[in-house]
Amino acid sequence: METLTTIAPNNDWQIALVNGQKALISLEIAIEDLAIYRKLTNALTKQLDFLGSNKSSFEQLTRREKQVLHQILQGYSNEAIADMLCVSCYTIKTHRKNINEKLNCKTMVELLPYLLFF
């Protein structure tokens, strides 16, 4: 049986942790499953650390840059994003340049962890 206890309103515990609030996560698990849960806990901790340390950079993005970033992370090309947003390809290239500068990323691989913000 798994239970989750949190002091965060609306059980939005990930956002609460990123914002510095505390949450207690309590699990009852079989001993043979302990290694799996340890891996999951470590992965969650890394994600929360990323969210916390990159939140201010992400918040520097404009609403439109966030839209473009979301489309980039979904694998859309500049042309497809331009069509979806009814702008030119040049505009999307400019947004990409600004996103990369604000997030201090040089490659697509460096952008991938930002999926956590969506």
From TrEMBL:
Family annotation (PROSITE patterns): HTH_LUXR_1 (PS00622), HTH_LUXR_2 (PS50043)
Domain called HTH luxR-type: residue spans: 54-118
Coiled coil: none
SUPFAM superfamilies: C-terminal effector domain of the bipartite response regulators
Record keywords: DNA-binding, Transcription, Transcription regulation
Gene3D superfamilies given in the database record: Winged helix-like DNA-binding domain superfamily/Winged helix DNA-binding domain
Organism: Pedobacter albus
Domain of life: Bacteria
Stored InterPro entries: Sig_transdc_resp-reg_C-effctor (IPR016032), Tscrpt_reg_LuxR_C (IPR000792), WH-like_DNA-bd_sf (IPR036388)
Name of the protein in its database record: Helix-turn-helix transcriptional regulator
